[in-house]
Please model this.
Amino acid sequence: MLDFVLQMLGSRPIEYAAVVLGLINVTLIIRRSMWNYPFGIVMVLLYAKIFFDYQLYSDALLQVYYFFIQIYGVWYWLQFRQNDGKVIVVPLPQRQYLVYLLTAVIGWLAISTLMARLTDASFPYWDGAVAALSVLAQFLLSRRHIESWYLWIAVDVLAIGLFWVKDLTPTAALYGVFLGLAILGLFQWRAAAKQA
Model:
């Protein structure tokens, strides 16, 4: 039986495991559950290896960031929970959001240029855009800001194409699901903020 499952998975059992963990992680984030973090931590460890193997170095480095920001997110979310255990969401002032976006653009250009000049990275500017926007999105998510979902929507659209081109089909499909979940997360978090 195990041989049959491994044959169906081909050479990508790690990628499929990361996909399943990612789905569980994002579903729990939408529900504002602290339990998203254990799944997210294991997922980023798996994706660090996958992206490095596929020469998506910006995304591989991104997984290192995700590891540490997840630990920060656990600490931060524990401080701002409702009685039912769900995290309290808050909107971000527009001016502050614009400053964060400008910082992400500068980060994107810097990381992409370094990857293009110093490595054999595939699609360094495309990969760098996914990485830079993801850094900001995860930071805002850790800080419980609704606006993180707008960034996740942009990241998902960019990532679907990049992973498809790189023949990471299960991961491209995962980001397609993430796109739908990000839209759902945006609506649910906005509703939660209105109730608060």
User: Anything to note?
Assistant: The first helix runs from residue 2 to 9. Helices lie at 2-9, 13-30, 36-53, 57-79, 94-118, 124-142, 148-165, 169-195. Residues 32 and 86 are 5 Å apart (CA to CA).
